[in-house]
Amino acid sequence: MAAMTGAMARAAVRAAALGAARSSGTRLADSVPRAILDFGSSPIDRQLVLSAQFLLKELPVRLAHRVAELENLPYGLSSKAQVLKVRDWYVESFRELRAFPGIKNGAEEAAFSDLLRNIYRRHGLVMRPRQ
């Protein structure tokens, strides 16, 4: 994918503004429905669908916040090629999530899980586990 302009990335952030206004908070524990937290080792299909619905709503908001943060770094860091590349990954992931249709059943949840795996792979170099 070609590098996105700052205007394109800002447009993606603005597109998430509505969702951000409705977001239940920045802390995951505060915004996760209780049924999602009570999975256990073998979740039922309904729990998976609920989790996918929650993520489909919440992840674009969080990605939009990261894009905004990357565009507002101090000391000109926002214009560095490496930062722009990461920002573009976030924008691409944001767009894919926003374009995903609603999740109402197990088949749609499975397709959403595939999308999340692809996003995770794309961001793999950014999301290194802490040692």
From TrEMBL:
Its main location: mitochondrion. It is found in: Mitochondrion matrix. GO terms for biological process: regulation of glucose metabolic process. The keyword Disulfide bond does not apply. GO terms for cellular component: mitochondrial matrix. The keyword Kinase applies. Residues 34-125 form the Branched-chain alpha-ketoacid dehydrogenase kinase/Pyruvate dehydrogenase kinase N-terminal domain. Keywords: ATP-binding, Kinase, Mitochondrion, Nucleotide-binding, Pyruvate, Transferase. Its EC number is 2.7.11.-. It catalyses: L-seryl-[pyruvate dehydrogenase E1 alpha subunit] + ATP = O-phospho-L-seryl-[pyruvate dehydrogenase E1 alpha subunit] + ADP + H(+). GO terms for molecular function: ATP binding; pyruvate dehydrogenase (acetyl-transferring) kinase activity. It comes from the Eukaryota. Belongs to the PDK/BCKDK protein kinase family. This is Protein-serine/threonine kinase. It comes from Monoraphidium neglectum. The lineage of its organism: Eukaryota, Viridiplantae, Chlorophyta, core chlorophytes, Chlorophyceae.
